[in-house]
Amino acid sequence: MTMPELNIPDPEDLLWFDDRVEAFIDGDLQSEDAERFHALLASHAMLSAEVEMARSITDAFSSQSDASCPDAVTRNVMAHVRKDWIQSIPARLKDGWRKMAGAGLRPALAMALLLIVVVSSTMIKRPAIQQQADVVQALSDVKMALAYLSDAGRTTASTVRQDVIGPLVVAPMSRGMNTAIEN
Amino acid sequence: METHRHRVYSYVLHMLGDPAASADVTQDTFIRLWEHRTALEERRVLSWLLRVARNACIDQMRKRKVRRSVDDEEGSIVDSLPDSGRSPYGDAAAALFNERLEQALERLGEPHRSIVVLREIQEYKYEEISDVLNLPLNTVKVYLHRARKALRKDLGEVHRHDYA
Fold it and tell me: Is it true that domain B84-164 has CATH number 1.10.10.10?
């Protein structure tokens, strides 16, 4: 077994070699460089030591696994998130209202709200006796309306009979029958 | 949160080396995520978290001049290493090497240190690192090459000093 020589490499070779140690370790050394690299490696013990050092560093790094994050970190973050979520509820409601306004829903919501208020005040706040008076008044109004409609109907029927049916239907028919009898 | 918290915490721990400070930074990072949740795409959340965490780490290092103490057994990254089942001598040698490596990593400046942690330890893709650090892809590759070379030189010096 031949041992690498313990001589000092040429400075130019040393620089060239030094730039390619990591590529050699990673298996990325260009094929045109491989022969020269291996020749230098075989010739100089100090270059072998460099490669061994580079390999040890890579192995040491790759043997390290991710450290475990303490559970307290998660607990503290979640506590912050919950607190922030609760504190932001008014702002989110306000934001939601602003978005609805932007979408043109604000007038519709305002109308619905107004309707609810009016209906509620009508149904709830007025006294019962006043409601009875309203019913009596309403019945009276309905009777008056029916009477007016009845009278109007009668007048309209009389007018139609005198102004339309008489001259336009009865008279021509009468004339037609008289003519037929005379012939 | 469950998906990313270990990744973020691990990155921060490698950057600061102090478990308590790393937990604080991780917590603040996730609170900021909550505050910015509406402005983020889900697929970019991890990149965003790492970017925020990195900025917080840089602030911490500037303000407090945090330096990891390799003598402080508690909270050392070595504690997080999986048991490799080696001999006591091998374990001791590996632990010593890792301590030296941590020290050498500390001596790296930014963004070299982040690139080494993200690529070599956490095994992110170059594209992801480029996104996190907001650096061109080729720059990430060049910086990583320089950082690995610097670590090799640094540890080589220590090694030569130890055995001189």
Answer: yes
